[in-house]
Write the structure tokens for this entry.
Amino acid sequence: MTANSDLERLGEVFKAFRDKDGLTQDDLAKRCGDAVSRTAVALFEQGRRLPSPEALRELATVLKVPEELWKTYATPSISQRLEFELLLSELVGKPITLRPANTEEAEAVEKLIVDLFSQRQTLHQAYDLLNSILIYYGIPRMAWAFFKRYFTVPLWEG
């Protein structure tokens, strides 16, 4: 991950607010109650995992982070897109972040990602959908043999 990823930047903002308040990660987690663990705080600050929308909201409330800095990340589709980007980054061996030309493009990609993981589809449909998403990230089309070998999961079995 590089410092310019959306998730890493957001984690840095929350860390700055935590540091300003003189809190440790453990202190912050305890103030959030059962909604957030210390590990979740650490992974978030490192840009490695976005907390659930509920946990993000709780962290922001405790730290008094202005809503305009985090609210867009509290939607399930953006959360799922960022998680997908982390996994895709691991797969291709370099940081991957969507840089949409406009809001409509970002929403289209997020819808495709949500569809990929939430709709029951055949293996061929999932393969085509994944390759459609890769286009937005400038990643070459995935070979069918690779997909079939490593991405066969019950979700996509027809």
In short: The first helix runs from residue 6 to 20.
